[in-house]
Design a protein that fits this description.
Blueprint (H helix, E strand, L loop, with lengths): L1 E2 L5 E2 L6 E5 L5 E6 L6 E2 L1 E2 L5 E2 L3 E4 L3 E15 L7 H7 L8 H5 L2 E16 L2 E19 L5 E11 L5 E9 L8
Antiparallel strand pairs: 1-2, 3-4, 4-5, 6-7, 8-9, 9-10, 10-11, 11-12, 12-13
Length: about 180
């Protein structure tokens, strides 16, 4: 729990997540803290996560974030028995992103576009600034169809047009025990 300067609990800083599910037991929204804005989630016809475009408006800025996902046709091993949701709830997003953990198929590409607009009395002032993050995934499946390696190639473009490229490689080793 976070506290304000008077020592009372600050609901905006509460370290609590609220999840909403549909009848098919798919996650449809999540929000942080009791006063945070909920982020809506959608699903395609193959049970893959789609994050719809969302806009957040503050007194002097409007931020619009849009997403594009590309999926393969292979079965995502994290989609079985709630494993992906458990890992997401445990906040292990630094290893994988929620689209990989929650979708029925493996995510091969991901693009996030952030559009920032400065506002003056609710009116857009100047040109919008754009930031892009593009991630390409290469997944090698190993024994029993589980990911053996995942390579993430990430490219970030900031509003000035400069780029930052990064490649991360993950190798996985599994131990399967029967009880």
């Amino acid at each position: 729990v976070g506290y304000d300067e008077n020592g009372t609990p600050d609901e905006d800083r509460r370290d609590t997540f609220f999840y909403t599910f549909n009848a098919a037991k798919q996650l449809t929204s999540l929000k942080s803290g009791s006063n945070g804005a909920a982020i809506s989630l959608g699903w395609d016809g193959r049970n893959n996560l789609l994050v719809p475009t969302h806009t957040q408006e503050m007194s002097d800025e409007r931020i619009t974030t849009s997403f594009e996902h590309g999926y393969d046709n292979n079965i995502n091993p994290y989609s079985f028995n709630g494993l992906g949701f458990l890992l997401t709830a445990l906040n292990l997003g630094q290893v994988e992103m929620p689209d990989q953990l929650l979708s029925a198929n493996n995510v091969l590409s991901y693009k996030q576009t952030i559009k920032r607009e400065m506002l003056d009395n609710g009116q857009v002032v100047g040109e919008p600034a754009y930031e892009y993050t593009t991630i390409a995934r290469s997944i090698t499946l190993g024994e029993k169809g589980l990911p053996a390696t995942i390579e993430l190639k990430e490219k970030r473009t900031n509003p000035s047009g400069s780029e930052e490229n990064q490649t991360r490689n993950y190798k996985f080793k599994y131990s399967i025990m029967k009880q």
